[in-house]
């Protein structure tokens, strides 16, 4: 009898009394949370369509929605000229040219040079933090890195103009008779590189910290030095995370605006000379938005075409990041 | 026992036949064999907490010494002292001496990296590197820069670890595709490939099924013909089956008794050891 009572009370306890009101409350909470999460997706989609809509009018004079509603269009700039043209003079009164290649090249030059700064220093910092640093050093270094990550990029821009170009570059290159202009790609790229070091270091370090202790201890117990553990065990085992850090940093460098707008110049040169003035896609957009061109004019609408290109490039970088993470997933379990 | 010790430069075990290895443990009274490891008042602290009471013990060459005791009694702590893996733990402090062929490994001039090349270790959970089977076994010889005739070294290590028959046709495959028991034997092969002399094992069979455990135990007995083996185990039957000598640690990090395994299990000196072995305690 007592046993039966006991089992009945257990059944009662695990059944609980989930009322209809409880279920409704759960549902409301779930929907609210979903709504918040959905905002990010909706915003991304909205931005994409706003860009597409406006960029359409750069090429075809009318907006995409007008076209879809049956509006008449006439071509102003061909897509081919835009993606393959080697000259970019949107504001030229007589013979404007709308080839995005100089802007792409400017962006690419900055990104490559910045990667040469951020990737080695960032990776080395991550290795140091995860394997070599004493807890004390770590406790100082990590917050410092985060401060570096938190500095507004316009400050980096000033740093490039007021220190990197006049002191560092002129100081190093001047003695060799190399002239360094006030605005140049290299100076901006070094600043962009420094700005992305914390990103490379912090994400790589997270990936390295995720390598199981069993692996590193196994290697140490074999008589491996720290360097051998870093090169032979930790880096290969965390490669996907490290590559993801590189791609995110590159993606960040592509979109970086203030530093390049201040320090890289305003001349859309198709060049690979790091000491030349270049204009990146982002810097052009800042320049153009502050200009005098009328909204709806082809030179104004070129903003959106460049913006769309920028959007697609960073989107591609993010997709690549996802792919790398899946393809080179850590092999350990 | 600290008489005819070879110099530290001469750490590799000699291959001349040592009768001790084949001797039934109960017969030999005094340790006439060479002492490989000699702890004197070895004490370990984690921060302010004392994990190991002063331990004094001499471990002879080419024997299996089992370390048993309840959880948290300092078994693994003592084991990790031997190859200085405790160095990896923040706040860990070791006092006293641990002589390896007469040389105190806690002297300032001892390089833990070089020490670990002479003292191999097998962990509780199989931890093969995410590399091929071949590269796992070749890891030690490679980092030590002695990679001439690597193929022969790898084959020999895999044979001694009783794994060669199972993997000889797929050395290039990932070590992670092996079963748990095979992975553990691979880790043993990896540990013995550089010919370390001493092998430490931290509950090497506790994550394995009974059949894989039996294979590991057989292997340990074979390894003792060439190597000095120190093994931590939770399993008293395992200690009784495979070891020549047994150290019993009890809670608080105290080495309570250290003697021939047969003696420990038949007539322990200490009442607490008897209670522990018969299951009344721990």
Provide a descriptive summary of the structure in words.
The complex is a heterodimer of chains A (333) and B (282). With 333 residues, chain A is mainly alpha-helical. Chain A is built from 14 helices and two strands, in the order H-H-H-H-E-E-H-H-H-H-H-H-H-H-H-H. In chain A, strands 1-2 form a two-stranded antiparallel ribbon. In chain A, helix 5 (101-132) packs across helix 11 (239-255). The longest helix of chain A has 41 residues, at 20-60. Chain A starts with a helix and ends in a 6-residue tail after the last helix. The model of chain A has no long low-confidence stretch (mean pLDDT 89). Chain B is built from ten helices and ten strands. In chain B, the strands form two sheets. A six-stranded mixed β-sheet of chain B has the order 6-7-8-3-9-10, sandwiched between helices. Chain B has helices at 75-82, 112-116, 133-143, 150-160, 164-167, 180-192, 210-223, 236-242, 261-266, 271-277, and strands at 35-46, 49-60, 64-68, 92-100, 103-104, 119-122, 198-202, 228-232, 245-250, 254-260. The model of chain B is unreliable at 1-32 (pLDDT under 50). Helix content of chain B is 30%, strand content 24%. Chain B is an alpha/beta fold and 282 residues long. Chain A binds chain B through residues 135, 212, 214-215, 217-225, 228, 232-233, 236-237, 330-333, and chain B through 83, 85, 88, 90, 113-118, 120-121, 123, 125, 127, 129-131, 139-140, 143-144, 174, 176, 187, 190-191, 194.
Keyword list:
heterodimer, A: 333 residues, mainly alpha, MetI-like fold, 2 domains, two-stranded antiparallel ribbon, 14 helices, B: 282 residues, alpha/beta, 6-stranded mixed sheet, 4-stranded antiparallel sheet, 30% helix, 24% strand, globular, disordered N terminus
